[in-house]
Design goal:
There is one protein chain. The chain is of the alpha/beta class. It has one domain: Alpha-Beta Barrel (TIM Barrel), CATH 3.20.20.210. It contains 14 helices and nine strands. The strands form two sheets. A seven-stranded parallel sheet has the order 1-4-5-6-7-8-9. A two-stranded antiparallel ribbon has the order 2-3. Helix 9 packs parallel to helix 10. It is globular, with a radius of gyration of 19 Å. The structure holds coproporphyrinogen III.
């Protein structure tokens, strides 16, 4: 495969940084909105033809250097028997863990619920341009744990989950263990079906103190990431709002780390182990400003891009639904046309 994204992951020199965006599959693309008029989100995830189509839309519509599988991190709790529904306002479980005194006893593995994802991977590989790499993913242990306790889509605090983590550590550990076991199986199967890179989305990693994350959760994240790397596939860890916790990120954990928009790229580069590459970290809301302002901000990245070959351009978190996709396309074109002065 001829891919600037895979070359960068493999620490080969390239003339520019590769680019892809978190939440690029779906959400902001008019072509996706068109498909959504006749198909629900769940329908599209469960139909290999549609899922493959949506996975590849950003390659055509934005020109990004990699595709990410059209799926969701909440599929794993669904495979633990939690009954997942995607409502107009967001995802919701039939059995949020707040209902139970001993929630771990209510997690019943049904790994068949993950099979459609493998069919979708097979389909993407069948229909893609052979030089388009495919990124697989799953949720980080803390992020997934938090959603499992969310009783209502309006809850964005995750207070119930964090309260449980403090008040019931032994049950919490059992839940995290169940998540890790299922996530490993899921991730390894994604590799077997042909993904070329794997990202762990620990979007709510910053909900607890960094040292607590390091002690309680990081070993679980590491197990998932290492299970993929052991199969020869590069890994990206996205611990959002991790702050100074980035000092815990080293080459034994992951190959690349994705940096949020709160953290300066140079500070991140200093904190993270030199052998780990960097991904990130444009504030997605930059795309609310005009083209001249966007270009001005992007230009500030040229020195970083010149000096850091092990950098993948991305956002510091995913697209927001009301972002104009033309601004995203503008960013991709700018990255491709800019002289990164790497010779
Ligand atoms: O990046 C991609 O586009 C690939 C597919 C992907 C989705 N969700 C599809 C999706 C990925 C990688 C995710 C990850 C995910 N899902 C995370 C972690 C990363 C992040 O962006 O924060 C989280 C926390 C979830 C849970 C989730 N799924 C929420 C809170 C919501 C509702 C709000 C929202 O962001 O839209 C979803 C729905 C969802 N997942 C959509 C898509 C395309 C929107 C569905 C629609 O079109 O109605």
């Amino acid at each position: 495969m001829n891919s600037i994204f895979l070359d960068t992951l493999n620490k080969k020199d390239t003339h520019r940084p590769p680019v892809w965006f978190m939440r690029q599959a779906g959400r902001i693309l008019p072509s996706y909105q068109e498909l959504k008029k006749n198909n629900s989100f769940s329908d599209m995830m469960n139909d290999p033809n549609l899922a493959a189509k949506v996975t590849l839309l950003p390659i055509n519509d934005l020109g990004v250097d990699a595709a990410i599988l059209f799926s969701d991190i909440l599929i794993v709790p669904e495979a633990l028997g939690m009954g997942l529904k995607f409502t107009d306002k967001g995802p919701l479980f039939d059995n949020p863990l707040t209902k139970f005194e001993y929630p771990s006893q209510h997690l019943i593995k049904n790994l068949d619920k993950l099979n459609h994802v493998y069919d979708n991977i097979d389909k993407v590989l069948e229909v893609r341009n052979p030089n388009t790499p495919l990124i697989g993913f799953c949720g980080g242990p803390l992020t997934t744990f938090c959603f499992m306790f969310r009783g209502h889509v309006r809850d964005v605090t995750f207070n119930d989950a964090i309260k449980f983590l403090y008040s019931n550590p032994s049950e919490s550990k059992k839940i995290i263990d169940a998540l890790v076991e299922t996530s490993i199986e899921y991730a390894k199967n994604q590799v077997k079906h042909g993904i070329e890179c794997f990202q762990l989305f620990e979007t709510y990693g910053g909900l607890i103190p960094e040292d607590m994350y390091n002690e309680l959760i990081l070993p679980a994240s590491k197990k998932i990431l290492n299970s993929v790397r052991d199969l020869g596939i590069p890994t990206i860890f996205f611990p959002k709002n991790f702050g100074g916790g980035l000092k815990y990120v080293n080459k034994d954990l992951c190959d690349f780390v994705s940096i949020d928009w709160q953290t300066n790229l140079y500070s991140a580069r200093e904190m993270v182990d030199k052998e780990v590459g960097i991904q990130g970290n444009i504030d997605p809301r930059l795309m609310y400003s005009d083209y001249a302002s966007i270009e001005k901000e992007l230009s500030k990245l040229i020195p970083f891009g010149r000096d850091n070959q092990d950098w993948i351009f991305n956002l510091g978190h995913g697209f927001l639904p009301d972002i104009d996709y033309k601004k995203a396309k503008f960013i991709v074109d700018w990255i491709k046309e800019t002289n990164w002065k790497r010779d």
